[in-house]
C-alpha cells in the first residue's frame, strides 16, 4: 500500500508567500497542500469541512492574528501547527508564546535571495512538516531527501579508537529537536547549581537561541547561555549551540572549551547533534554523558554510538514522554543507548551519574 501523504493547510495573508510555501511543499512526494487560506476566518471555514495533518500559520494577519487562532485551535481541536513568521526571526518573546500556546515548531519565512538559502529553507520546512505530522498535540486552555544528507565527517574526523583520554571533569551533552524547547525547560529547571557542565544542541534557526537561553536562564538555578566560540565550559552552566552554526567540544589540557563552526548541515541540521556527540566522543570519552531527547529524524544516533563505543554513558528519552520519538528511537536502533528514561527522570539521571564520578575519583 502506498504511504499516505501529509496533508497541509497554509494560512498566510500574503499571496506570494502562500505560493512559495505551496511550491516548496509540493516538491516533496510525501506532502500534499490540502488548501491555502488568506486569514484565520477563511481557514476556520475550511476546517469545518476537513482537517489537515499539519497547519502552517503566519502570525501577522488581518481580522485575527495567528497567535489567537493558534490558541483557539489548541483549545477546540488540537492539530500540529508550525509557525512561519518573520516576527520570530529575531528570537523575540513571540516565539516562546507560540510554543507555550501549543505550536510544535517554528520556521523562518523562506529566503529566496540565494539558491543555497532557498534550498536550506525548503529542506527545513519539508522536514518540519513531516515531523509535525507525527507529533502528539494535546488540548490547551483557551522521505525523500531533497539534498545530500551529510554525516559529521563534513565537520570533524571520526574519533580515534583505543586512544587513552585522561580522567577529567565530567560533562553532559544533550541533543533535541521537535518538542525540545519545552522538554529542555523541564530538565534544566530541575538541576541544582552544582550540576555538571552541559552543552546542548537544540535544532533552531539563527536568531532564536540567544533569546531561548535568556529565557531559560531567568527560570533555572543554573546559568544558561548561548555558547560562544572559545569559551571555557564550567560546572553549573548550560551552553546552547547558536542557531545555524555547529558546536563542538574541545579539550585544552584537562579543561573543556567550546568551538563554534560554520559548515554544511549534518544529518540535515545545523547545528547538528551528531557533530556535538562526535566531538564529545573525541575529547571526553568516558568522562561524558550523552542524552538524546524528543525530535524527528536520526540526528545524534551515529554520534551517540560513537560516544558509547569510547566509554561514555548514554540515555534516551522514552516514547511516552516524547513529542516525537524519532531521534531517541533511531539512537536506540543504532545501539548507542545505555538506558531509556522518562523526561522527568533525566535530571536525576544526570546528577546520579555526576555524583558517581566524584565517588570514583575519591575512591
UniProtKB/TrEMBL annotation:
The lineage of its organism: Bacteria, Pseudomonadati, Pseudomonadota, Alphaproteobacteria, Hyphomicrobiales. Involved in chemotaxis. Part of a chemotaxis signal transduction system that modulates chemotaxis in response to various stimuli. Catalyzes the demethylation of specific methylglutamate residues introduced into the chemoreceptors (methyl-accepting chemotaxis proteins or MCP) by CheR. Also mediates the irreversible deamidation of specific glutamine residues to glutamic acid. It catalyses: [protein]-L-glutamate 5-O-methyl ester + H2O = L-glutamyl-[protein] + methanol + H(+); L-glutaminyl-[protein] + H2O = L-glutamyl-[protein] + NH4(+). The keyword Transferase does not apply. Residues 166-357 form the CheB-type methylesterase domain. The gene is cheB. This is Protein-glutamate methylesterase/protein-glutamine glutaminase. The active site is at residues 177, 203, 299. Its main location: cytoplasm. Its EC number is 3.1.1.61, 3.5.1.44. It comes from Bradyrhizobium xenonodulans. PROSITE patterns: CHEB, RESPONSE_REGULATORY. Keywords: Chemotaxis, Cytoplasm, Hydrolase, Phosphoprotein. Phosphorylated by CheA. Phosphorylation of the N-terminal regulatory domain activates the methylesterase activity. It is found in: Cytoplasm. Belongs to the CheB family. Residues 7-124 form the Response regulatory domain. HAMAP family: CheB_chemtxs. Contains a C-terminal catalytic domain, and an N-terminal region which modulates catalytic activity. The modification 4-aspartylphosphate is found at residue 58. It holds the Pfam family Response_reg. It comes from the Bacteria.
